[in-house]
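dude i think i finally got it to work??
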Amino acid sequence: MKTGILLLTLVLCVTAPLSKAQESPISATTGLAPGDSFTLFVFFQNPMPRVTQIRCSFQLKGAPKPGQEDFPRQLGCAVALTRDSDTNYRVKVEIPKGIAAGDYQVTWIAVTMDGVEHAYSEAQLPTLAPVAISNPEHLEFSPIKKLETKP
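look at this
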């Protein structure tokens, strides 16, 4: 009996970490919805100790889902930034209510230092996985049936 319990304990100790390893990793780019936020970390190659502002833009990739054609399709960084070191900064990105669902890709990051702003875009930006946003809301606007004027 003691051997069976010892063997069962050993099997559980070995298999528990393996089952965790097969779970998908939690990321800031999954499970986000209107009202949520995520943090964008910006790592510069060289020290940038005088950065005072970081702005950014994420755009919806592709067309919006039916019923969301008139919803906003852009995310932006909050005004405040946090400096972790001379090369590492972070900014909060809030997901507004009523935003179109889908994958959002960073399109530009603008950095202000000593009152001068420099924008990074396209090839100047490192690869970043799209941010997936879900939003089940949709709106259907009725066509206008008739217009009239009266004196």
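The beta strands are 37-43, 51-60, 74-83, 88-94, 102-113, 116-121, 131-133.
im so relieved honestly
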